[in-house]
Hints:
- By secondary structure, the chain is α/β, with parallel strands linked by helices.
- The protein contains 6 helices and 7 strands.
- A 7-stranded mixed sheet has the order 3-2-1-4-5-6-7, with helices on one face.
- Helix 1 packs parallel to helix 6 and helix 5 crosses helix 6.
- The mean pLDDT is 97.
- The structure holds 5-O-phosphono-beta-D-ribofuranosylamine (GRF).
- 5-O-phosphono-beta-D-ribofuranosylamine binds next to helix 1, strand 5 and helix 6.
Amino acid sequence: MPYRVAVAVSGRGSNLTALVDDLSTDDVARVVLAISDRQAPALAHAAARGIAAHRLDDYRDASEWMRLLDLARANLLVLAGYLKLVPSEVVGAWAGRIINIHPALLPLHGGSGMYGGRVHAAVLAAGDPHSGATVHLVDEIYDRGAVLGAGRVAVTAADTAETLAERVLAVEHRLLPAAVRAAAGAGRPVPFEFT
Length: 195
Ligand code: GRF
């Protein structure tokens, strides 16, 4: 039976669609639910692929999250560009079963307010030779849970936040499926190799 994956999103949903496409090639895992705090384009992409897509009535309401995750019989919750905090009761009840993807090499350039172009601008401002993407376990502090896997990209002198974002995103689209496939194999999120 495929491992059942719920994905929380707030934006365009390119990671969600990359994950759905990757998982459609076999029966290891399936995206069974997309959840959003807003009417995100990502929800429409999920619905167009026949996935249950749900805008939360109140994203702070843990019982609504729990009801949706239970109904979908989800094994894993993936945060893929989800911009609000997941209610702490959900994080507690789902400890060890929630992962997030972040567009930098954590623990660098994470934390509250570090999302989108700001992350890549911070990498450039710091003069880091490398950036990349990280998948980590979610706990109650933004971007602080245990790192499970990461993919690197070299930063070049010609990079702008936009060009760097584009190369990092291409890595994200391979990294997230690798993380979910590793989780499906182990029955829970686990550290994984990525090249
Ligand atoms: C990605 O860069 C992800 O790492 C971050 O939010 C962005 C979401 O992009 N957490 P998309 O909605 O998947 O295109």
